[in-house]
Design goal:
single chain; two-stranded antiparallel ribbon; 15% strand
Length: 168
């Protein structure tokens, strides 16, 4: 494992924003690894979410390999929040932190989804997993658990925690 920290963050916490703003941060958008997106090259990753796509046969190992490799190249590696990823991290003794919106804050999540052009199916699926994923997350072997209140972003949490973010 490299020197970079892994942060598994729920949707809309600001992973893409951080990856675009800071050169020592990468957002490993999982759909680039999970699906064959070759027929959707003119559609943004956010607009693809919630659509039917062909599964990549190398998933999820290609994603885990990319996460491990990224810790050698970046200080902060941002990944999708899913229970099966925690299973992998825990099984392989990989340290990670979690970022999660406050459970009373789904309206903010929905607002962010709409702003970034996610479709209704995606928003509906997020709503279905919002509390169950939280319940699963708090039982995990994480190093830090960041709670995003109100309109906070992951950037706010990392800066507050003293994590160095290097602007592009």
């Amino acid at each position: 494992m490299g020197k970079g920290i892994i942060i598994s963050a729920f949707a809309t916490c600001g992973k893409t924003y951080l990856g675009n703003k800071y050169k020592n941060v990468i957002d490993l958008e999982s759909s680039n690894y999970k699906f064959d997106n070759s027929e959707l090259i003119n559609i943004s990753p956010e607009e693809r979410k919630g659509t039917s796509r062909k599964l990549n046969p190398n998933w999820p190992n290609n994603y885990y390999d990319a996460i491990i490799k990224a810790t050698d190249q970046y200080d902060v590696v941002l990944v999708q929040l899913k229970p099966e990823h925690f299973d992998y991290f825990d099984k392989h003794n990989i340290k990670y932190s979690i970022a999660y919106p406050n459970l009373n804050n789904f309206d903010e999540i929905k607002r962010r989804c709409i702003k970034r052009n996610n479709n209704e199916d995606f928003i509906f699926r997020l709503r279905e997993v919002f509390e169950p994923y939280y319940e699963d997350s708090i039982k995990r072997n994480y190093e830090k658990f960041y709670i995003l209140n109100d309109n906070m972003t992951l950037e706010d949490c990392l800066l507050e925690d003293g994590i160095y973010l290097e602007k592009k």
